[in-house]
Design a protein that fits this description.
paralog of FGE (formylglycine-generating enzyme); 3-stranded antiparallel beta sheet; 28% helix
Length: 449
């Protein structure tokens, strides 16, 4: 029997969904995040939920109680509703107090209690959203429903983290749910796209944009070329089989040290077979490696080395965002415009359980003909994670500010496991340049002069 509580109804209570403005969207996004979380963990035994599957990741059940505790802090206590737990409880589920590799030793809520806690918080939020939160709140937290968007995005980001944990899980097989048929797009352009130089609009004014996306600003960029598609498994195979992992010429010095120390020979989860046949392990299942999908599970150093080998480089995050917005100076939410993503635009939301072949989403092309900027794989950029001029931490320093510096590289665009609510042209992700378990790939660029 599943330890997960009854599936949460996505139908908003009268008084929430009927209200105009941001409340209806906030509730829909909260419900979507919870339904996805519950569905992903449904049927897993208690031992699997409690186990530390990798020192890089939390026990699955820690994430469940963590997102509930975060929701209690920001959607109840911060908005004047009564607390459901003693604030001392917050320390157990504080990501900054306890590194991921230590969380299995904490006095965690048992799975049944963790799911019950999450349901209890959500019910209190539903009541407070309906009766205690003004539609036109003029505080920074409530303007445009910001804090609700923050919490919905936070939960979806942890669902993506859960997917990465499940991919690392080896002691039990994770049974993937049914997925839609794999697309078979026709031939797609493999050329580069020329992006003219000039003044580019960067950053975001989206009401749910995080502090590190702000403020919106302009920047002068030189002309550059950008690959029309992310680098595929087939293209990356050429780097692997030509001895790319044995040639220090292509590697950043720190990357070369990392490759040597870890004895890396290919992307994570690839499996070499006799006769140059390649397989991969995907959520416990071994299958033939598809050459037409974007490569994923490569770290920044691997992406950088491939780009050097190909005679190119990684794009800066400013170049990436300029390509996503287009050349007319309009700050679009997505490469195709402001319309919400559909299956025709991008592979998002987790239903595919992996990248799709390049060219599968023609409606998502940018105005200048760049494909696949959103979805499928996060794309490593050349840029360090640093603040924009005029940055102000909000609503807490630990979301962005404490990570600024040259220790983290910026990723853009979202992956197949990313939720549409957390993906837009201005969204900035970041991670250590050695991280491989995340659903990251890349595309290449070169100077246009």
């Amino acid at each position: 029997m599943s330890l997960i509580a009854d599936e949460w109804s996505s139908a908003p209570r009268a008084g929430v969904g009927a209200e105009p403005g941001w409340k209806a969207r906030a509730w829909r996004e909260l419900c979507a995040a919870r339904a996805r979380l519950l569905g992903m963990l449904a049927g897993l035994p208690e031992s699997t939920l409690l186990r530390q599957h990798s020192p890089l990741m939390s026990p699955l059940i820690w994430d469940v109680a963590h997102v509930a505790n975060y929701e209690e802090q920001w959607l109840l206590r911060a908005l004047g509703a009564p607390a459901l737990t003693d604030p001392a409880f917050d320390r157990i589920y504080d990501a900054f107090q306890h590194p991921r590799g230590t969380r299995a030793a904490l006095p965690l809520l048992p799975p049944e209690d963790a799911f019950a806690y999450a349901a209890r918080v959500r019910e209190a939020v539903r009541e407070h959203l309906a009766d205690g939160v003004p539609e036109r709140g003029d505080t920074p937290l409530l303007r445009g429903g910001y804090v609700f968007g923050m919490v919905a995005q936070h939960e979806q980001q942890h669902v993506e983290t859960l997917a990465a944990t499940l991919q690392l899980m080896t002691e039990v097989e994770y049974r993937l749910p049914p997925t839609s048929p794999r697309p078979h797009p026709g031939p797609v352009p493999r050329h580069e796209v020329f992006i003219p130089g000039g003044v580019a609009r960067l950053g975001s004014e989206h009401p749910w944009a995080y502090d590190n996306e702000r403020p919106a600003h302009t920047r002068a960029l030189s002309p550059f070329f950008l690959d029309a598609h992310p680098v595929t498994n087939g293209e990356y195979r050429g780097f692997v089989e030509s001895g790319g992992y044995d040639d220090a010429r292509w590697w950043h010095p720190e990357g070369w040290d990392f490759v040597q120390a870890e004895r890396l020979r290919h992307p994570q989860f690839w499996m070499a077979q006799e006769g140059s046949r390649w397989l991969r392990r995907r959520f416990g299942q071994v299958e033939r490696l598809p050459w037409d999908e974007p490569v994923q599970h490569v770290c920044w150093y691997e992406a950088d080395a491939y780009a050097r080998w190909a005679g190119k480089r990684l794009p800066t995050e400013a170049e990436w965002e300029r390509a996503a917005h287009g050349g007319d100076g309009v700050a679009r939410a997505h490469p195709w415009g402001d319309a919400p993503p559909t299956a025709g635009h991008a592979n998002l939301g987790g239903d595919a359980w992996g990248p799709r072949p390049v060219g599968s989403h023609p409606e998502g092309r940018s105005a200048e003909g760049v494909w696949g900027l959103l979805g499928d794989v996060w794309e490593w950029t050349a840029s360090d994670f640093t603040p924009y001029a005029g940055f102000e931490a909000f609503p807490y320093r630990e979301y962005s500010e404490v990570f600024f510096g040259d220790g983290y590289k910026v990723l853009r665009g979202g992956a197949w496991a990313s939720a549409p609510v957390a993906v837009r042209n201005g969204f900035r992700n970041w991670d250590f340049p050695i991280r491989r378990q995340i659903f990251a790939g890349f595309r290449c660029a070169r100077d246009g002069r």
